[in-house]
Specification:
Lyase, Ornithine Decarboxylase, Chain A, domain 1, 2 domains, six-stranded antiparallel beta barrel, 12 helices
């Protein structure tokens, strides 16, 4: 039989989480953000569940081609725009909307020969200092784009740096409002954290903040963007992926026995452990410490010792009926109970974020849909 590790994508959760974006931003259209192969879930596996999105947002031209091959005829937005002039040919052929964040991209558009003008999103650097025109340069960039026959409609966008934290978005909203005042075009401001936490501010109805589009990324896949302040249950989000495996061996320890490479765990007394077919070669974080949560047969327990390439170990001391073949959920839903292990908890224990865990699931892990 094949090795028992499995990543299961839950289409019902994707549909539910997409509906949550509409709930928090009822007057906006929603981009389903499917960059990085739908945050590791697989574009093809997620597509049918996300058909009700108003558009798809991503980075990669090859991923845009995959969406068109799935017969998606609606909007596709390249969030980072094009990376070289010849990319514009594919934008023309696939009817892609794309971000413009630097003068070079405007130069490439000016030299591009196309019969169909492009829909572009002019990006403001409102304080994140990653991509985008500064407020001082924004209007001149808009004027250049507006004068090009290669450009049809110009939409306006920015990205929030602190929507998930105490600083919030007010300072960036003010910068956006000032830079875009009286400019026509649709707006897109909100990422997942802003949709959940600040939609009323960013969608308050002022013309410059009408925010016609919101961009749902991490929340779409069932992670709380502001964990640990809020949990997925607080936002009524459901996990879109379960990473599960099974116990393939057991050991009984006595006081003083150690577990795994480096002997990082020492038993304080008699205990029973299970060996699980999952390791860092599967994408599970090697640095996940003793105490990282897991579910065995639907019951919470903990990792012990160091994660190795192909295996990790869990504490079975309080699970006398667990043994070889018992289901182990590394994150997501247990099949034997209603228990859910949010990926945020696993990521936090390992000193990282859910985005990384989702995207890191290794190619050797088989996928299925529930």
């Amino acid at each position: 039989m094949p090795r028992p590790i499995l990543a299961t994508v839950h289409p019902d959760a994707l549909q539910h989480n997409l509906a949550r974006a509409h709930h928090f931003a009822p007057d906006a259209r929603v981009w389903a953000v499917v960059k990085a192969n739908a945050y590791g879930h697989g574009i093809e596996r997620c597509f049918d569940a996300l058909r009700s999105a108003d558009g798809f947002a991503l980075l990669d031209l090859a991923e845009a081609e995959r969406l068109r091959a799935l017969d998606w005829r609606g909007p596709i937005h390249l969030l980072e725009g094009v990376f070289e002039p010849r990319d514009l040919e594919l934008c023309s052929r696939l009817h892609l909307w794309h971000t413009v964040h630097c003068t070079e991209q405007i130069d490439w558009l000016a030299a591009h020969k196309t019969q169909v003008p492009h829909r572009v999103f002019l990006k403001l650097n409102s304080g994140m200092n990653r991509l985008g025109f500064t407020p001082a340069a924004f209007r001149s960039a808009w004027a250049r784009l507006n004068a090009l026959p290669q450009v049809d409609e110009i939409s306006l966008m920015t990205h929030f740096s602190d929507a998930d934290g105490a600083r919030g978005i007010a300072h960036q909203v003010a910068a956006f409002e000032a830079a875009t005042a009286d400019l026509p075009g649709e707006r897109t401001l909100c990422n997942s954290a802003a949709i959940l936490r600040h939609a009323k501010l960013a969608l308050r109805g002022a013309q410059s903040l009408s925010a016609d589009w919101v961009r749902e990324g991490i929340a779409l896949y069932g992670s709380a963007p502001d964990f640990p302040e809020k949990r997925v249950s607080d936002w009524d989000l459901l996990p879109a992926m379960t990473l599960s495996s099974r116990v393939i061996g057991t050991q009984t320890l006595q006081a003083g026995d150690t577990v795994g490479y480096g002997s990082t765990f020492t038993a304080e007394g008699p205990m029973r452990i299970g060996v699980v077919a999952c390791g860092y070669a599967d994408g599970y974080p090697r640095h996940a410490p003793t105490g990282t949560p897991a579910l065995v047969d639907g019951v919470r327990t903990r990792l012990i010792g160091r994660v190795s390439m192909d295996m990790l170990t869990v504490d079975l001391s309080s699970l006398p009926s667990a043994g070889i073949g018992s289901e182990v959920v590394l994150w997501g839903r247990a099949s034997s109970s209603a228990e859910v292990l949010p990926i945020d908890e696993v990521a936090s224990a390992a000193g990282t974020i859910s985005y990384e865990l989702m995207c890191a699931v290794a190619p050797r892990v088989p996928f299925a849909s529930s």
